[in-house]
Design brief:
The complex is a heterodimer of chains A (about 140) and B (about 150). In chain A, strands 1, 2, 3, 4, 5, 6 and 7 form a seven-stranded mixed beta sheet that branches. In chain A, helix 1 runs antiparallel to helix 2. Chain A has one domain: Nuclear Transport Factor 2, Chain: A (Roll), CATH 3.10.450.50. The mean pLDDT of chain A is about 95. The radius of gyration of chain A is 15 Å and the shape is globular. In chain A, strand 5 and strand 6 form a beta hairpin. In chain A, about 30% of the residues lie in helices and about 40% in strands. Chain A has about 140 residues and is of the alpha+beta class. Chain A starts with a helix and ends in a 10-residue tail after the last strand. By secondary structure, chain B is of the alpha+beta class. Chain B has a single domain, classed as Nuclear Transport Factor 2, Chain: A (Roll). Chain B has three helices and six strands. Chain B is globular. Chain B starts with 8 loop residues before the first helix and ends in a 10-residue tail after the last strand. The relative contact order of chain B is 0.19. Classes of the chains: A alpha+beta (about 140), B alpha+beta (about 150). Chains A and B meet through strand 2, helix 3, strand 4, strand 5 and strand 6 of A and strand 2, helix 3, strand 3, strand 4 and strand 5 of B.
């Protein structure tokens, strides 16, 4: 059984991750993503894939240079912890201003996967995509 | 069939389940799906390629039954590319790219490159899917998105 402490830790990390997205805080990514260029696939809301920490940090640095910022209210969070693995799924409203590159306003769904490595939880996978209720057979 | 080499027996089993899942998508095999997803009412959170969410085995099976009916036996093509399998204890996850060419009869055709995340959990020795997230894949995002 997961301990309350593990669930609390993942929830804190998840909220920190959402906050980091609002300002493009790459120090959060450096502190909490699994390091290394291999093995980390980030499936971004822009439909493209970023592989490894340096790649996604390059994107965030670009967005910050544009003066980018976002509001990201979230709902329907589900946190699951099993031993040394955890995942979080949730719905969010992503409203961002990327300056000269334009604005984005989109409902989205996210999956975070976390793994405990050397006693510290690290994000090992992220998947974010557009959310649109109303799919066939009662998609919500 | 995946070309990834599994390093452990658990990885091999999860890769086998991934291949079975891809084949079930191609055959719209509702029975396979029901046998391999978490059975409890709200134990499965499924973020579908159509951008909507389906909660629980009954909900996603209802969609697949609908698709099987409208497809009317038409040929479907679903292929997994470069699946990566990760197993830590009793949880496993697979990230992959999946290409889909589907013919849903009167509801239309779909041809789509996608990204997929599967999460599997082992309970009493039996792996069940507890989460699936599939979305469009489009190369060319800012800063070298692949």
């Amino acid at each position: 059984m997961p301990t309350k402490t593990d669930e609390d830790a993942i929830l804190d990390l998840h909220h920190g991750f959402v906050d980091a997205n609002k300002t493009g805080d790459t120090s959060y990514l450096r502190a909490h993503m699994a390091p290394g260029p291999e093995g980390f696939r980030w499936y971004n809301l822009n439909k493209s894939v970023y592989v490894g920490m340096d790649h996604i940090i390059r994107l965030w640095d670009f967005l910050v240079a544009l003066g980018g910022n976002a509001t990201i209210p979230i709902k329907e969070e589900q946190v699951h912890v099993n031993g040394d693995m955890a995942f979080v799924s949730y719905i969010m409203q992503f409203d961002a201003d990327f300056g000269a590159m334009g604005k984005v306003s989109q409902s989205a769904r996210s999956t975070e996967i976390w793994e405990r490595q050397d006693a510290a939880w690290k994000m090992v996978h992220f998947h974010c995509s557009e959310h649109e209720p109303g799919g066939w057979e009662g998609g919500v | 069939m995946s070309t990834m080499q599994a390093a452990t027996a658990d990885e091999a089993r999860v890769l086998e389940l991934h291949d079975g899942f891809v084949a079930a998508n191609q055959a719209i095999d509702v029975e396979w799906l029901r046998a391999h997803v978490a059975p409890d009412a709200d134990a499965l959170v499924w973020f579908n390629l159509n951008k909507s969410d389906y909660i629980g085995a009954d909900h996603i099976c209802r969609l697949w039954e609908f698709l099987r009916e409208v497809a009317g036996g038409a040929e479907q093509h679903v292929e997994s590319i470069e699946p990566h399998v990760h197993v830590v204890g009793d949880v496993a996850w697979v990230d992959s790219h999946i290409t889909i060419r589907a013919d849903f009869g009167p509801m239309g055709r779909i041809e789509q490159a996608s990204r997929a995340t599967e999460i599997w959990r082992r309970t009493a020795g039996d792996w069940r899917m507890v989460h699936f997230h599939c979305s469009e894949h489009e190369i060319g995002g800012w800063e070298g998105g692949l």
